[in-house]
Amino acid sequence: MKPTPTDPNCAYCAEGAPLDAFGIKICELPASKLYLFKEQSHRGRVIVASKFHVSEMVDLSDEDRRAFLDDVARVARALHAAFRPKKVNYGAYGDTGCHLHFHLVPKYEGGFEYGGVFEMNPKRTFLEPAEYDGLIAAIKAAL
Ligand SMILES: [Zn+2]
Q: How far is CA 119 from each of CA 30, 31, 71, 90, rounded to the nearest angstrom?
């Protein structure tokens, strides 16, 4: 499948200020773009967004869907290696955004929201730039 046209109103397509509002780009993977979620109540929380502006997994070809899910698994493996969470939660919502992306949310035993559903944006934990850089370096080293 060829990349779909960029939607200038979509944070994952356009990046820039709309993306900066909630994320920091870490890198590109074969079928996705990886962002650190600025709200870090769950240490290491990231977003894996498809390189295609599609709403649903079923909008991707089999080949592109497998490549995207391979990226999701690769990132999850890196989060486990870098941060040793008890569990990684996965959330793919995007009711209004219409650009396929997964939230990967490390959960720590006894920690915030452990044993329950993660909030989309708890707006309680933001870090200093050097701390974001440290998380990004740890994730990149484990990818
Ligand atoms: Zn998009």
A: 29, 26, 23, 12
Q: For residue range 52-88, list pLDDT tens digits in order.
A: 999 999 999 999 999 999 999 999 999 999 999 999 9
| Ligand 1 centroid – CA 52 distance (Å) | 7
Expressed in angstroms and rounded, the spacing between residue 13 Cα and the centre of ligand 1 is 4
Domain edges within the chain: 11-113+125-142
Question: Residues with Cβ < 8 Å from 70, sequence gap 6 or more?
Answer: 30, 31
Q: How far is the CA of 134 from the centre of ligand 1 (A)?
A: 28
Closest CA to 88 of 55, 46, 126, 122: 46
Q: So what's the architecture of 11-113+125-142 in CATH?
A: 2-Layer Sandwich (3.30)
Across 3-22, average pLDDT: 88
CA distance 106 to 83: 8
Gap from CA of 138 to ligand 1 centroid (Å): 27
**Distance (Å) from CA 11 to ligand 1 centroid:** 6
pTM: 0.95
